[in-house]
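anyone seen this seq b4? input:
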Amino acid sequence: MRITYTSIKDITPKTRDWKIKMLVVEKSPKRIGQHSSVKYQNLMLVVEQGNRLQATIFGNDIDSREDYLQMFQSYYIINAYVKLLDSKYQTESHQYQWIINAKTIIEEIPENEQQVEIPKYNLIPINELDAYKDSIAEIVALHIKPPKEITLTNGPATLQEIYVIDQSFNPISLPMWDRFVQDECKKISEIIETKPILLATKLKVRSYNGLSLSSRPASAFTINPLILEAKPLQRCCRAYVEVDNGTGKLAAVMFGELAEKALGHSAIDFMNHTGDEHLPFIQKMASEASENQWMIQLAVDPEIFNQQRHKNFNVISIDPVQYGPELE
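predicted toks r here
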């Protein structure tokens, strides 16, 4: 008789014919082993009590499970292979790892049955990350540089930099290393013009000579996560504009309070006036803003300065030009 458990602590390598309801909260891309050609995929699963568990799928089992184990979806997992987790790969307190193989049964949760609640994330602003270990941050990817090969003391490595911001709108570089370049960076580069939101966990944070971030082997990134904590950044106002200093024009993007300040409307106004039916409102707003002169500071990547696309130029400050009485 199959027993349904509610705690991962009750499931050990000796447990037989078991079943438990789990939620997928992390799912890595398919990867190739560092010292072998075996393909694998890592997952992080949670139960109702919020306890987290590391799971892995190998080889052909990854493709056979492609339609299952989707992010922030609940499933019944039945008879996964349970093994002691090597401490050097352990990122959570639970000592066992689950291997999801051909013998593992995965069932969707019936619609009339309660799903596992998505855990609440304590998101840390970028400028406070150095005070936290294994921090969780939510950031917007603004620009991604091409990957490059470099040589470190322990051998060659691949590096790709992403420029990101959070709600403070202060850009910072996030170097991504090796496997993240081939997987996450590739996906991000394909949608970088949409300014995707990233949920980043277990970043390497340093505060020597200024704050710096980078990926590390235990890091995990979720692109455009479907969680409540993402809504403030999803609603973050962004406006694509064209600036002209009399010698030429270039396209740029403004975020948050800067866009509200320049265009004279709140982010709520923007969200309520999207679509072709609101085109007159947008045109009127743009016309009013263009009647003023502004002192604008742009963040520009010099490597791509001449490409002149809005995704490469970000407005970091904007103020109306003030004229004295003698100039009016």
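DSSP finds seven helices and 21 strands in the chain. Residues 303-311 have pLDDT under 50 and may be disordered. kinda curious what u guys think
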